[in-house]
Amino acid sequence: MAIKSSVLLLLPVALLLLAGSSPAVAQLEIGYYSKTCPNVEAIVREEMDKIISAAPSLAGPLLRLHFHDCFVRGCDASVLLNSTEGNLAERDAKPNKSLRGFSSVDRVKAKLEAACPNTVSCADVLTLMARDAVVLSKGPTWPVALGRRDGKVSSAVEAADQLPPAFGDIPLLTKIFASKNLDLKDLVVLSGAHTLGTAHCPSYADRLYNFSSAYNADPSLDSEYADKLRTRCKSADDKAMLSEMDPGSYKTFDTSYYRHVAKHRGLFQSDAALLTDATTMEYVQRIATGKFDDEFFKDFSESMIKMGNVGVLTGAEGEIRKKCYIVN
């Protein structure tokens, strides 16, 4: 019931966002492919059903792919492009080395190419897959305006410079989000995506070992949780071991992430940072009570719509790639 009510509440929000001042966003439309590929969402959902049923742990990585795409050059599928001779692409930037799910995107794109050749962009495919990854993990749904075009440029340097880092504090993260027209509420709400997925040791090991001259471990991290993490992450160089970002619930989209953060058990420094600002701390503590799940689902849906509109290419800009990993 909560999911259905979220959709009804979000439709006006989506339309307001689409009618915003950005000329690119104004060209995104609900039902953009109604004449050229009317079954686009059904095709994506059918394939995503199969993907997530076979590998539920892929929901987090597919959502993360969309995040990492939108924060560099906007939501233009530039994160999907392979590196070429003379150009190191976004996917090979250090913050993106652990990205997964590329073959799933290729699989969905191939289905769409068979049904509607040269029609649906990889940027739209990734946006729809991210939404469906959340829905299929028992999270909310929201309307996705379509019509994005694919970018032709992908830079590892830009990715390294522009992606929000796991060690980010509130001032840094706020600045990065603001550069994408996302605000402090979007920051704390979209951090809730950490309810899905896992992370490799190097992304949080500096909180466990040689944190500072005064502390071996990050004092903002619950000591018992730190001890538990050390049993999995033996050193900062351990690149094989994975830890759940939302322990015990990492395949389900829910609000338990905020309960962990409220108890100083967020995996990343950026999670812990949410308790250092009055606004974000109040939101964490409110959602952590477990009494406002519908509110979080609604907020997350609205923030995902905003993020999905960041820096989009439309009209004659960019192209519609035939294969998502290479420009035409």
Automatic annotation (TrEMBL):
<feature type="binding site">
    <location>
        <position position="254"/>
    </location>
    <ligand>
        <name>Ca(2+) 2</name>
    </ligand>
</feature>
<dbReference type="InterPro" id="IPR019793">
    <property type="entry name" value="Peroxidases_heam-ligand_BS"/>
</dbReference>
<feature type="binding site">
    <location>
        <position position="74"/>
    </location>
    <ligand>
        <name>Ca(2+) 1</name>
    </ligand>
</feature>
<dbReference type="GO" id="GO:0042744">
    <property type="term" value="P:hydrogen peroxide catabolic process"/>
</dbReference>
<feature type="binding site">
    <location>
        <position position="195"/>
    </location>
    <ligand>
        <name>Ca(2+) 2</name>
    </ligand>
</feature>
<keyword id="KW-0349">Heme</keyword>
<feature type="binding site">
    <location>
        <position position="72"/>
    </location>
    <ligand>
        <name>Ca(2+) 1</name>
    </ligand>
</feature>
<keyword id="KW-0408">Iron</keyword>
<feature type="signal peptide">
    <location>
        <begin position="1"/>
        <end position="26"/>
    </location>
</feature>
<feature type="binding site">
    <location>
        <position position="69"/>
    </location>
    <ligand>
        <name>Ca(2+) 1</name>
    </ligand>
</feature>
<dbReference type="InterPro" id="IPR002016">
    <property type="entry name" value="Haem_peroxidase"/>
</dbReference>
<dbReference type="GO" id="GO:0140825">
    <property type="term" value="F:lactoperoxidase activity"/>
</dbReference>
<keyword id="KW-0325">Glycoprotein</keyword>
<keyword id="KW-0376">Hydrogen peroxide</keyword>
<comment type="similarity">
    <text>Belongs to the peroxidase family. Classical plant (class III) peroxidase subfamily.</text>
</comment>
<comment type="function">
    <text>Removal of H(2)O(2), oxidation of toxic reductants, biosynthesis and degradation of lignin, suberization, auxin catabolism, response to environmental stresses such as wounding, pathogen attack and oxidative stress. These functions might be dependent on each isozyme/isoform in each plant tissue.</text>
</comment>
<keyword id="KW-0106">Calcium</keyword>
<dbReference type="GO" id="GO:0020037">
    <property type="term" value="F:heme binding"/>
</dbReference>
<keyword id="KW-0964">Secreted</keyword>
<dbReference type="GO" id="GO:0046872">
    <property type="term" value="F:metal ion binding"/>
</dbReference>
<keyword id="KW-0575">Peroxidase</keyword>
<keyword id="KW-0732">Signal</keyword>
<dbReference type="GO" id="GO:0006979">
    <property type="term" value="P:response to oxidative stress"/>
</dbReference>
<keyword id="KW-0479">Metal-binding</keyword>
<feature type="disulfide bond">
    <location>
        <begin position="70"/>
        <end position="75"/>
    </location>
</feature>
<feature type="disulfide bond">
    <location>
        <begin position="122"/>
        <end position="324"/>
    </location>
</feature>
<feature type="binding site" description="axial binding residue">
    <location>
        <position position="194"/>
    </location>
    <ligand>
        <name>heme b</name>
    </ligand>
</feature>
<feature type="active site" description="Proton acceptor">
    <location>
        <position position="68"/>
    </location>
</feature>
<dbReference type="InterPro" id="IPR010255">
    <property type="entry name" value="Haem_peroxidase_sf"/>
</dbReference>
<feature type="binding site">
    <location>
        <position position="90"/>
    </location>
    <ligand>
        <name>Ca(2+) 1</name>
    </ligand>
</feature>
<dbReference type="Pfam" id="PF00141">
    <property type="entry name" value="peroxidase"/>
</dbReference>
<feature type="site" description="Transition state stabilizer">
    <location>
        <position position="64"/>
    </location>
</feature>
<feature type="domain" description="Plant heme peroxidase family profile">
    <location>
        <begin position="27"/>
        <end position="328"/>
    </location>
</feature>
<keyword id="KW-0560">Oxidoreductase</keyword>
<feature type="disulfide bond">
    <location>
        <begin position="201"/>
        <end position="233"/>
    </location>
</feature>
<dbReference type="InterPro" id="IPR000823">
    <property type="entry name" value="Peroxidase_pln"/>
</dbReference>
<feature type="binding site">
    <location>
        <position position="164"/>
    </location>
    <ligand>
        <name>substrate</name>
    </ligand>
</feature>
<protein>
    <recommendedName>
        <fullName>Peroxidase</fullName>
        <ecNumber>1.11.1.7</ecNumber>
    </recommendedName>
</protein>
<comment type="similarity">
    <text>Belongs to the peroxidase family. Ascorbate peroxidase subfamily.</text>
</comment>
<dbReference type="GO" id="GO:0005576">
    <property type="term" value="C:extracellular region"/>
</dbReference>
<feature type="binding site">
    <location>
        <position position="246"/>
    </location>
    <ligand>
        <name>Ca(2+) 2</name>
    </ligand>
</feature>
<feature type="binding site">
    <location>
        <position position="78"/>
    </location>
    <ligand>
        <name>Ca(2+) 1</name>
    </ligand>
</feature>
